[in-house]
Amino acid sequence: MKDHIKKKLKLKVSAIKDGTVIDHINALSLFKVIKILGLDKIKNQITFGTNLDSAKLGRKAIIKVSDKFFKDDEIDKIALIAPHAKLNIIEDYEVVEKRIVEIPDVIHGIAKCFNPKCITNNEEISTCFQVISKEPVRLKCHYCEKITGQDQIKIK
Ligand code: CTP
Ligand code: ZN
User: Fold this and answer.
1) Assigned domain for 5 exists
2) For ligand 1, is residue 90 a contact (CB within 6 Å)?
3) Residue range 7-50, pLDDT digits in tens
4) 33 C-alpha vs ligand 1 centroid, how far in Å?
5) What is the pTM of this model?
6) Which of 2, 27, 103, 146 has its CA 20 to 30 A from that of 78?
7) Number of domains comprising the chain
């Protein structure tokens, strides 16, 4: 196959000029990532692809946000639901920085407590968790002390 065709096939979602590419998101977590970052509410150009082939994840998703450079606390949030995600910072079409995401030790807000009886699910109180394990993610509620596991995480 000709090289220029190979290149086109490799790039399933168009390159961007400036912004951030969040790559290697588990396909099942794509819409959660969009929600926690508030990407459904901003005016920037966003392109994404899902169920793309990935050697590591089987099926991956990718999100490209033009003219957006996430802050550290936003990047920490990504780690909670897409621990394998890699961020690529793009300037003038070039990848100028690659960042891996890292789960913080304490999480304020973002996730819901798994316990339906928890005060945070019944009153206007934002959640707070201590991260007692990062792989897999296990969150201990500051209020009811119940544990919310990786597969139970719902975004508040
Ligand atoms: N990318 C983009 N727009 C650009 C440059 C890169 O959308 N102007 C995307 C690429 O499509 C890729 C990601 O940013 O999904 C990282 O680019 P690059 O480092 O060139 O690709 P890889 O070497 O395949 O990255 P890695 O193996 O680190 O995931
Ligand atoms: Zn709780």
Assistant:
1) no
2) yes
3) 666 677 899 999 999 999 999 999 999 998 999 999 999 999 99
4) 19
5) 0.84
6) 146
7) 2
